[in-house]
Amino acid sequence: MTNKYIIGGGIAGLIFNFYNPEYKIISPELGGKIKSKAMQNIIYIHATAETKKLLEDLKISYTKKTNIIKYVKNNKVLNEIDSEDKINFIRKKIDDKKYEVKDINLSTNDYYISTFVCDYDILLNELIKRCDFIEDKVIRITDTEIITEKRNYEYDDLVSTIPANIFWKIYYKKNIIELNNKEITFVLSDKVPEYLEKENYDLCYFVDDKNKYTRISKKENNYLYEFTGNINKKDIKKYLPKDAKILEYFVEKNGLIITNKNNIPPLNIKFLGRFATHNHSDKMQDIIRESNWSYDLRHIFNRQKTFSSTRLDFNSFDNVDKKQEETKLLLLHLYNELAEVLDAINYKLHKKKKEINVDNVKEELMDSFKYLLNLFLIWGIDAKEFVELFNAKSKIVEERFAKEFKDEN
Predict the structure, then answer these.
(1) Which of 25, 31, 84, 254 is 20 to 30 Å from 135 at the Cα level?
(2) What angle (nearest 5°) sits at the alpha carbon of residue 162, between those of residues 309 and 9?
(3) Which of 45, 72, 43, 38 is nearest to 186 (CA)?
(4) Helices (H), 9-100
(5) Distance CA 164, CA 278 (A)
(6) Cβ atoms of 54 and 167 closer than 8 Å
């Protein structure tokens, strides 16, 4: 019987279950946002090695497409905008004129997105027919059990794909960090402003306050408008072009997230997908990459990050100057810990040899490693990148070593 579970039956949970069939999904339903035809307008499968692998693993046919991005400022269509305009747009998007913007990438840092186009319904059906599903609603999570409306499940490993603010409401220990979400009102319509009618674009961002909406995503002859906040249908009519029809209208409660890197999962639990990690930059390729990787080392990284977060604000380390300052401080501690390793062994030639306390040596080594691990965390290196960097550097060192001693052989 499995003791590994996934909470949430959206695309993230389904992809993880596809690559990790030893897990079971617990959710009231399967599919999530991708079931909505309107939401399919804004779900992009970025053309990456990971997404290509998923589609080919599922034997789903696809084509490659270039999605053009344009901008509107003062009701004029632009092919690109400067950094100041991007900052203003992001502040408009999150409805906070004083927000400190650290990441000015929007959907991408370029003026187009390369995507794979496929039938989303086929993609969803292929994932669903392969998944292991328990139809139930989770109402509480402890450090050992998942409590649902129907029964309890003991777990050894748990993957949560539900929004972080919902997870922390049902987790038995309260989370002290603040997770900021904004509602988004989505409106599918048949018309766009006149100045966009003859433009070639797939996504259009509206930079200033002349328009209430922040983005229009075009698919065939339908246009999905995005408004920050909960706006009723009556008011929506005022913001759309004259005679525009509202084909679909819905409000997404967790539509917009403001990244918080201090959202650290508990032990034996993994957050997967942008709403679970509370990181707006997470995309489908990140879900696929994470789903194809082993998590033993991740538990070590997460435990250290949880402990260190009592002193360190990981959100602040987007700033290189702060990374440098913290690195200097941690290195001073690391030097001291390494000196304690030396003190635990016989290294002084002028001293009488002592009996070595092996347990003490191990403890001092671990103290040193924990400080070193903090340095990796400060510089944004997670468990997976740690393994990648280790393997890449090992390859270089091994090749260099083999070349250096080749002549001696």
Answers:
(1) 254
(2) 145
(3) 38
(4) 11-19, 49-57, 83-93
(5) 6
(6) no
Show the tokens assigned to 277: 């990690």
Which backbone phi and psi does 76 adopt, to 5 degrees? -115, 135
Any idea of the CA torsion for 18, 19, 22, 25, to the nearest 10 degrees? -40
In this predicted model, what pLDDT tens digit does every residue of 295-340 receive, in sequence order?
678 878 888 998 898 888 888 888 899 999 999 999 999 999 999 9
List CB contacts of 266: < 8 A, sequence separation 6 or more: 143, 171, 173, 306
112 has which bridge partners? 68
For the chain, the structural domain boundaries read: 1-62+118-177+260-292, 64-114+181-257, 294-404
- Six-digit token string for 47: 């053309």
Residue-wise pLDDT tens digits, 223-243: 999 999 999 999 999 999 999
Among candidates 253, 213, 231, which has minimal Cα distance to 93?
213
Cα dihedral sign for 44, 46, 50, 55? positive
- pTM summary value: 0.81
CB-count burial class (<10 Å; 0-12, 13-18, 19+) for 82: exposed
CA 246/CA 214 separation, integer angstroms? 17
The span from the CA of 41 to the CA of 224, in Å, is 7
Task: Decide yes or no: CATH 3.50.50.60 for domain 1-62+118-177+260-292.
Answer: yes
